[in-house]
Design goal:
Blueprint (H helix, E strand, L loop, with lengths): L1 H26 L20 H7 L29 H21 L3 H14 L8 H12 L3 H13 L6 H9 L5
Helix pairs in contact: 3-4, 4-5, 5-6, 5-7, 6-7
Length: about 180
């Protein structure tokens, strides 16, 4: 059975080589032909299947919903407008991301400035990040047993904080050479 499959595969491959490529040879100009172009012939166009795969699917058609009285969004406006609350969240995220970047760079002066801005603009500290960054600043600014103990206390009290890994990396784990 395996021998029959192997022979069939060889026959198919040989047929493709001789028949499939032979038609290309007949249509290509010969080297001896004086009117032949000096450039190689253009490759054949890709099969229709490859073109369909490369083309992304069309987006689904949106259902038209007519405007009605009392609709807060005018026609053509996004269904979910950016509110002042969204803008505040975006501003808080920008400061938190900048603090992360400064922490990765171990840029203590920038971290201090960003933390002061964060405390000024977002005193509620809903994500409980500010004290974690303060601990990291202390560890980077004054490394030693005392700042490590402060970091351990903070970790015990803030196990679910998103700053936990950064506190561990900068205060608890030994520096990597």
């Amino acid at each position: 059975m395996a021998l029959a499959l192997a022979l069939a595969a060889i026959v198919i491959a040989a047929g493709w080589l001789f028949l499939g490529r032979g038609s290309e040879r007949r249509s290509a100009p010969s080297v001896a032909d004086d009117t032949a172009a000096t450039e190689p012939p253009a490759p054949p166009p890709p099969p229709a299947i490859a073109r369909d795969i490369a083309r992304p699917p069309a987006p689904p058609a949106r259902e038209h919903v007519p405007a009605h009285d009392g609709d807060p969004n005018p026609p053509g406006a996004p269904a979910h407008p950016i509110t002042p609350q969204h803008q505040r969240i975006f501003a808080e995220n920008r400061i938190a991301f900048a603090l992360d970047d400064a922490t990765d760079a171990k840029d203590v002066p920038a971290m201090k400035d960003l933390l002061a801005q964060y405390r000024r603009e977002f005193p509620e500290d809903q994500w409980q990040l500010q004290d974690g960054y303060a601990v990291i600043i202390e560890c980077l600014d004054h490394p030693g047993a005392e700042s490590r103990r402060a970091a351990e206390r903070w970790l015990d009290q803030n196990n679910g904080s998103t700053v936990k890994r950064s506190v561990l990396r900068n205060c608890i784990d030994p520096p990597q050479p």
